[in-house]
Amino acid sequence: MSDSEEEGGFGSDASEDDEDFGGGFDDEDEDDEEEVDGGFGAEEVEEEEEEAPPLPKIVQQKVAGAAFKAFGTKYFKGQSPNYNINPIATPLLNIANSTSAKTAIATFKLVCQFMGITAIVGKSTLNALTGMQQIVGVALKDESLKDEVYCQLMKQWTDNPSPMSRARGTILLGLCLGCFAPSDKLLPVLRQFILEGPKGFIPYCNLLLRRTLHNGVRLQPPCQLELQAVKKKQIMRINVITDLATGDTASARLDPASTSSEWVAEIANQMGIKDTYGWMIYMDRFGTLVSLRGAGAKGQHIMDAVSLCDQEAAAKGIAGKEALSVTGQFSFRKEYFAPDHNSTKDPTATHLLFHQIQFNVRRNVYKCPNVEDYNVLAAQMYYSLYGDDLDSNRLGECLKAWLPQTEIDRQKLKDRLPIIEKLHAKSEYSRRSYTQSQTEGLVVTYALEKWGKVNSFSSDGAMMLMASK
């Protein structure tokens, strides 16, 4: 047994796993890791950034005097609340289910390995990403293990003589706080524990706890991107594509508890969209495009979607620095439509939707049944932009940008231009001088008629804009 193991059982501070943890993470350490474009790190957490939601009166009375050691002395079954280098034979808390109890005992070893406590109980260090996903994962799957994981972590942090190990424990605490909250009984103890921890992490951990209490438990363990976030004690604002045709963006705040509904509300407010019904956040990560509609009023947790996608990518052998960036991977799209949808009521929303349809027509996602329909759409698109100002050369360039190559190959531009020019001159929107929003609304109406599908699981008879087969 080495000297370091005899003195505290934490192994060498220069372990091969240091790179995964970015050093010791002492309060005064500067994080010199490379900033990855699109990763966390754009915004420092301020001490008074958010007001904590009020606690129940019974909890408020306990917060000031709560102490982990007192809690452990009262509730741990014959075990000390202080760290030790030995395995535990039983869970710290009373866990009746035998399977959960065995999982708790195994998880204690994982916690020790994550924290670098390698003598006797740990035996070896643990890869940071694998370790945090296993530890947090058991708590997400088993309600009885949420408090157990927090207690194990606090136990191995309390009176721990190794700054490196305490730093790793603080990182693990942040990762847990971003995914699940403790019970009401443990909550005041955990709050006090945070206040007594590293000063540099207090605002960040408080923020994570408040946000998780507000938005609820996650479904997926944290991903590599979140590990970097906790290391830097930072959150971020990222750009979400709002206009698929132009690439225009709006910013949204992302922390571990952020939900798709929060993003929709924030982006709609920035864009001036009046009604958020049917708008959704989409993620295109590692070539997989998914809607983050989720379940319930709050929608899916953004980081759950990222984590799940990363897990699937890792299973296919995709890993590395790509997982540390979300640049250009989120977009704001209209997905559902009310039965009485009226495009003229919200010109800003209609314009974004018009470009969304135009974008998908160009990429052959939305396919017209015949050449005539493509020409009608092209005429409407042109009029919405240029009105009566018809220019053949400009129209030709627009067609190259709007139509899929297969359609251009089917009917050459020299044959198509006269047809579209005639539609442009004689259509009702031209004769009645429709506004841009009215003309864009015609494209939306066509899209709903051709590519819309009644959403059978919707209680209000909403229509969903589907990709054509």
Q: What would you say this structure looks like, in words?
A:
The protein is mainly alpha-helical. The protein has 3 domains: 3-233, Alpha Horseshoe (Serine Threonine Protein Phosphatase 5, Tetratricopeptide repeat), CATH 1.25.40; 235-337, Phosphatidylinositol 3-kinase Catalytic Subunit, Chain A, domain 1 (Ubiquitin-like (UB roll)); 343-465, Acyl-CoA Binding Protein (Up-down Bundle). Helices cover 48% and strands 9% of the residues. It has helices at 3-7, 18-21, 57-63, 68-75, 98-114, 128-141, 146-157, 163-177, 187-195, 202-215, 224-232, 260-271, 302-315, 347-362, 371-386, 392-402, 405-410, 413-426, 428-431, 436-451, and strands at 43-44, 234-241, 249-254, 279-285, 288-291, 330-334, 336-337, 452-454, 463-465. Strands 1-2-3 form a 3-stranded antiparallel β-sheet. Strands 5-4-6 form a 3-stranded antiparallel β-sheet. Strands 7-9-8 form a 3-stranded antiparallel β-sheet. Helix 3 runs parallel beside helix 9 (187-195) and helix 5 runs parallel beside helix 7. The radius of gyration is 28 Å and the shape is elongated. The chain starts with a helix and ends with a strand. The model is unreliable at 1-66 (pLDDT under 50).
Notable characteristics:
Serine Threonine Protein Phosphatase 5, Tetratricopeptide repeat, disordered N terminus, 20 helices, Acyl-CoA Binding Protein, 9 strands, mainly alpha, about 475 residues, 3-stranded antiparallel sheet, elongated, about 50% helix, Ubiquitin-like (UB roll), 3 domains
